[in-house]
Design brief:
Blueprint: H1 3-20, H2 35-43, H3 47-59, H4 64-74, H5 84-88, H6 98-117, H7 120-141, H8 199-217, H9 226-247, H10 254-269, E1 282-284, E2 295-306, E3 315-331, E4 336-351, E5 354-367, E6 377-393
Parallel strand pairs: 1-2, 2-3, 3-6, 4-6
Antiparallel strand pairs: 4-5
């Protein structure tokens, strides 16, 4: 067996060991499903670090959402025999009902559709980084016993007999009850604990170097834009938090990561050149055929298009595409409408009397209106990945 094969075998063995001794979702101290808290207790790290990691993954193409749902389905709850998904296939008992398990499984589909549609390369890299983190945790801290949220039991102290001195709590020498307490010996001052590594300062220093290096490199490489530099800084801060979770420092980096994550998400979700394309809404009521755009497109938002004020003659052709949101188109009573409505992931359609709902549904047809054929010609192509689509005539 070659060195590469041995390395891959070692990684596989470590991941199998992680599964065999996987975290347990606690009933106390959790915020939602207990996935982050369970991971933190299993590897004895700060649960805040794990929660921040899931938030960062959610902002990185949405990967954190399906990963958290997968953990909810695959990690058993405290006191259960198996995980909810294993219970669904009759491998043991879980306190989560089958209906709740199915609901979580259904939610995985829109979460994964939104994630993988945001960019295949980014999602692949983020998933690889998540698997690498799991591998490193199991490799370095898998030998630790899971922590508990309950305090350790303390041996009860026998209460002293009334009147007995502290050095004779059982009162075995009654003649000495009236004697004064012995003067305690002066204790030497406790040694100052050794100062741990300054993970926060080290991480900030590396982040500063990244910003300075990016500013210099930006003069020759156009890739170093502000959103990309923010992404690099967030990666450095995340690495500092991960290292701090093992050494007990760096928690102050969280308060820098949160605003940077919000700014980075806003800069990548909104096009600041004046024509928002990723996070926007449309509410238009054109008066003439030329006022109707050829295409309305947004990633997250809604499109409200009212065509009832258009003239009774001419032709209109437009396409509407929404990744996550709502589309509503109103057409005149007498217009001839050729339409196609689709929800590629999951959604609800109501297009001129034709309805459908569920996963990957579409309806199409031609509606001539109240006066039959003739008049304004409208051609609609409406697509939504996750959301609601309506084409109404009133």
């Amino acid at each position: 067996m070659s060195g590469t094969e041995k390395a891959m075998q070692g990684v596989a063995d470590t991941l199998r060991e992680f599964w065999a001794h996987r975290p347990v979702r606690p009933r106390a101290g959790r915020k939602a499903g207990g996935v982050a808290t369970g991971i933190a207790l299993r590897f004895q790290i700060d649960p805040v670090i794990v929660r921040i990691a899931f938030v960062a993954l959610a902002l990185s193409g949405g990967v954190g959402v399906p990963l958290y749902l997968a953990g909810w389905l695959l990690l058993p709850e405290e006191g259960d025999e198996v995980s909810p998904l294993e219970s669904l296939i009759n491998k043991g008992h879980s306190s989560m009902s089958h209906a709740q398990t199915v609901l979580l499984g259904v939610l995985m589909f829109p979460a994964m559709a939104f994630t993988f549609d945001s960019g295949g390369f980014q999602v692949a890299v983020t998933l690889a980084a998540a698997v690498a983190c799991i591998y490193l945790l199991q490799k370095n801290r898998g030998h630790l016993q899971p922590a508990t949220t309950l305090s350790d039991s303390v041996t009860p102290v026998t209460p002293p007999v009334p009147g007995a001195p502290a050095w004779d709590p059982l009162g075995a020498a009654p003649f000495a009850w009236d004697l004064p307490e012995p003067t305690p010996k002066p204790q030497p001052p406790a040694p100052r604990p050794p100062r741990g590594p300054r993970i926060g300062l080290m991480t900030l220093g590396v982040a500063t170097l990244v910003v300075a290096g990016s500013a210099i490199a930006g003069a020759w490489a156009p890739w170093f834009t502000v959103p990309h530099v923010i992404g690099l800084v967030l990666a450095v801060l995340a690495a500092g938090l991960l290292l701090g979770s093992f050494t007990g420092g760096g928690r102050g980096l969280i308060w820098l990561m949160i605003p940077l994550s919000v700014v980075g998400f806003g800069m990548t979700a909104i096009d600041f050149d004046g024509s928002p394309s990723n996070l926007s809404s449309y509410n238009e009521k054109p008066k003439s055929v030329t006022d109707v755009r050829d295409r309305y497109e947004t990633s997250v938002g809604s499109v409200q298009l009212d065509l009832r004020d258009l003239p009774d003659s001419g032709s209109v052709k437009t396409a509407i595409e929404v990744e996550l949101g709502e589309v509503q188109v109103r057409v005149p009573k007498n217009a001839d409408v050729t339409y196609r409505c689709e929800a590629s992931s999951i959604g609800e359609l109501d297009c001129l009397g034709k309805r459908a709902e569920g996963s990957s549904v579409d309806v199409s047809g031609r509606d001539l209106g109240e006066n039959g054929e003739g008049g304004l010609q409208i051609e609609l192509d409406v697509q939504a990945s996750v959301g609601e689509v309506k084409v109404l005539r009133d």
